């Protein structure tokens, strides 16, 4: 049996989290149209007859390092390259971005086997251009494989999974076969609330929004959850609450339904919106909200 760690890396919004969820056959990592949706490294464990692949979804790598939060996200993505066995580099379609040069350098330095995944092929109509792009990519870097996929439609993911498995070292599984992640449920509860906020209000709310679980109480017939939504300005607070509280109610309902699915129990969810000025630029505030390490 093969077993090992697989880093999913790439620029924001290319579909890393969608890819991990579809490889696992379970929604674990939150996704949205807005870049920088993923903020923490998220482990997704897939055990099959061939062995165990431990995927690590990472925040997108990007060049804007002006804010403390952005630097934190890049550091998290970079540090994932330490201690993994295989790297899966995800691209959105058939083109390179100027920041990709930096990714090539990081990969060269890491010296790990790399699979290039060209994602969102459901949007690519021109096969000739695709073939030319793959040939060019082979010249650019000694990729182990170049695999076109559609993460969203689960196209070619079985092939990708086989290629990944073949590159993992021979080893016994690290995690029990029924375990799919290493984070507690309350972490994913906060993430689900953040997904609903990002999907509904991503354009209006900058990255300065985060979710903190204040109370998580499991009763035999109900799980009681209080969560704080932190924003930077009182104008953003009004946006989240909406006219007569309508927006917050919608977000709360959507989140509650997903949380109930995740934990398999009825949920009472109470959301509060709170203002903390300039948190995404203040190291101490970031730490207070759980961004405590560069894992
Ligand atoms: N058409 C199409 N869209 C996709 C595909 N994979 C992902 N997407 C969409 O691309 C957007 C970004 O997907 P994510 O999975 O959140 O991207 P990400 O790379 O994790 O982004 P960050 O966490 O921000 O770095 C979402 O709107 C997805 O639905 C695909 O194969 N085809
Ligand atoms: Mg993501």
UniProtKB/TrEMBL annotation:
Its membrane topology: Peripheral membrane protein
Region annotated G1, chain positions: 10-17
Region G4, annotated ranges: 119-122
Residue segments, region G2: 36-40
InterPro entries: G_ERA_dom, GTP-bd, GTPase_Era-like, KH_dom-like_a/b, KH_dom_type_2, KH_sf_prok-type, P-loop_NTPase, Small_GTP-bd
Domain of life according to the entry: Bacteria
Domain Era-type G: 2-170
G3, as annotated region: 57-60
Sequence ranges assigned to domain KH type-2 in this UniProt record: 193-277
Binding site for GTP: 10-17, 57-61, 119-122
Location of the protein in the cell: Cytoplasm; Cell membrane
Keyword RNA-binding found: yes
G5 as annotated region, ranges: 149-151
Key words of the record: Cell membrane, Cytoplasm, GTP-binding, Membrane, Nucleotide-binding, Ribosome biogenesis, RNA-binding, rRNA-binding
UniProt function note: An essential GTPase that binds both GDP and GTP, with rapid nucleotide exchange. Plays a role in 16S rRNA processing and 30S ribosomal subunit biogenesis and possibly also in cell cycle regulation and energy metabolism.
Complexes and interactors: Monomer.
Family classification: Belongs to the TRAFAC class TrmE-Era-EngA-EngB-Septin-like GTPase superfamily. Era GTPase family.
Protein name per the record: GTPase Era
Gene: era
